[in-house]
Amino acid sequence: xxxxxxxxxxxxxxxxxxxxxxxxxxxxxxxxxxxxxxxxxxxxxxxxxxxxxxxxxxxxxxxxxxxxxxxxxxxxxxxxxxx
Length: 83
Known about the structure:
Elements: E1 19-20, E2 28-29, H1 64-82
Antiparallel strand pairs: 1-2
């Protein structure tokens, strides 16, 4: 599992940086390798592995000791979204 710093969740495949254009009939996702020719404008592929992780003050460390707690909390919430 990875997180990409300062990466905003794309609202559709066409605006995703992992969208690989070949031609309209053969566009693919760089992550999954799935064909994107049947994905409608404004939608994401049903097998899109990206999930939105809302980051707020709960994850920001007040001191170095709290960093691990915030990290673990974020991972727990990510795991819940993936199930």
